[in-house]
Amino acid sequence: SQQGEEDPQALSIQEGENATMNCSYKTSINNLQWYRQNSGRGLVHLILIRSNEREKHSGRLRVTLDTSKKSSSLLITASRAADTASYFCASIQGAQKLVFGQGTRLTINP
Amino acid sequence: DGGITQSPKYLFRKEGQNVTLSCEQNLNHDAMYWYRQDPGQGLRLIYYSQIVNDFQKGDIAEGYSVSREKKESFPLTVTSAQKNPTAFYLCASSMAGFNEQYFGPGTRLTVT
């Protein structure tokens, strides 16, 4: 079962605009993580937010977490062509597994 | 130069043959993972290992086998019992306790 579900599945914006991706999950979490995957490559960890945190920043990235709604969002500000990638949220299911959603494919148009 | 490596990058096999995918890490991580990714899809967990000489099945373990004889290595064998083995396979490692996972570059397996 998919613990994380990203929305939208695909997003296309102009360079310089902000991009927002959402993630919903089903069970209680200790933390939620966001990863980026460039086409045909491995995933790269972007940011981890713990269940007792509501917002976290890293450079142009801002992640929010609403545990009451079981949802998280990733905001990329001032997008660049290099941000074109797929973005995945992931959260721990049960005691041992990190479960990934199906991802949002982000395209930044020049 | 620390990291996690997978080889080969592309692998072609005939149906009915077993094939082993390599995964090595020099990050001194205790935990290692194998995922499968199909086109346009997320990652599905095949097997994971939290410690040497121990591993657990993930969500789609049927048709796969692993070993963890050394901390640095976690090879995955795709057996002939796997009905649809063509996919992109990703290996990852992490410190114990579900910190961030570090991923290798992946192996694209094509079985014809």
Task: Offer a few descriptive terms.
heterodimer, A: 110 residues, mainly beta, 5-stranded antiparallel beta sheet, 0% helix, B: 112 residues, 4-stranded antiparallel beta sheet
Characterize the structure shown.
By secondary structure, chain A is mostly beta strands. Chain A has strands at residues 4-7, 10-14, 19-25, 31-37, 43-50, 55-58, 61-66, 71-76, 85-93, 97-100, 104-109. In chain A, a hairpin with a 3-residue loop joins β9 and β10 (97-100). Chain B has 112 residues and is mainly β. Chain B is built from no helices and 11 strands. In chain B, strands 2, 4, 5, 6, 9, 10 and 11 form a 7-stranded mixed beta sheet that branches. In chain B, strands 1-3-8-7 form a 4-stranded antiparallel beta sheet, with no helix packed on it. In chain B, β4 (31-37) and β5 (43-51) form a beta hairpin. The model of chain B has no long low-confidence stretch (mean pLDDT 93).
Entry summary:
The complex is a heterodimer of chains A (110) and B (112). Chain A contains no helices and eleven strands.
Counting DSSP E segments of at least 2 residues, the number of strands of chain A comes to 11
Structural class of chain A: mainly beta
pLDDT averaged over residues of chain B: 93
Mean pLDDT of chain A: 91
Task: Count up the helices of chain B.
Answer: 0
- The parts of chain A where pLDDT drops under 50 for at least 5 residues are none
The count of strands of chain B amounts to: 11
Helix content of chain A: under 10%
- Strand content of chain A is over 45%
Biggest interface, chains and residue tallies: A-B, 23 and 25 residues
**What share of the residues of chain B lie within helices?**
under 10%
Number of helices of chain A: 0
Q: Roughly how many Å apart are the termini of chain B?
A: 36 Å
